[in-house]
Amino acid sequence: MAATVQKFKLVFNVPVSSLEACKTAIFAAGAGRFPGPGNYTECCFTTMGTGQFRPGDMANPHIGTVGNLEYVESAKVETLCIGEDVVRKAVEALKAAHPYEEPSYDVYKLENF
C-alpha cells in the first residue's frame, strides 16, 4: 500500500482590505493546490462576515484602540495544503502578510478516505 501525503486545511480570518495580499502570500507558499490531472491552483473558499475584538492593555492594534470593542468587516478563507511543509510555509506567509499582530487562523489535519 503506497503512503499518502497528509492533507491539511488552513482557515483564517482577515480584514477585507488585506484579503488579496494574504491570499497571494499563502498561494505563493503552495497553499490552494489540488492534486490530480486538473492542476488546479489558487483554490479557496471565502465567506464574508463581521469580526470583533477588544485590544488588551499591552496591544498595538492595527485597527481600533486599546480597551474599545471593535467590529471589522472580515473574510474567512479556507484552503487546502498538501503536506506539512506546505501548511507550515503557508502559515508563515500568512503571518507575514496579515496586518494584525495576532492573526486568527486554524490548521486542521484531514483524513484520507
List keywords for this structure.
113 residues, alpha+beta, Alpha-Beta Plaits, 4-stranded antiparallel sheet, 33% strand, elongated, ATP phosphoribosyltransferase, N-reg_PII/ATP_PRibTrfase_C
What does this structure look like?
With 113 residues, the chain is α+β, with helices and mostly antiparallel strands. The protein has a single domain, classed as Alpha-Beta Plaits (2-Layer Sandwich). The protein has 2 helices and 4 strands, in the order E-H-E-E-H-E. It has a 4-stranded antiparallel beta sheet with strand order 2-3-1-4.
Give the strand content: 25-35%
CATH topology: Alpha-Beta Plaits
How many whole angstroms does the radius of gyration measure? 16 Å
How many β-strands, per DSSP?
4
Major β-sheet profile = 4 strands, antiparallel
- What oligomeric state best describes the polypeptide chains here? single chain
The CA-CA distance between the termini, in Å, is 14 Å
Q: What proportion of the residues is helical, as a percent range?
A: 10-25%
- The run of helices and strands is EHEEHE
Strand numbers in spatial order across the main sheet: 2-3-1-4
Number of domains: 1
So how many helices?
Answer: 2
Query: From the helix content, strand content and strand pairing, which structural class follows?
Result: alpha+beta
CATH architecture: 2-Layer Sandwich
Which regions have little confidence, pLDDT < 50, spanning 5+ residues? none
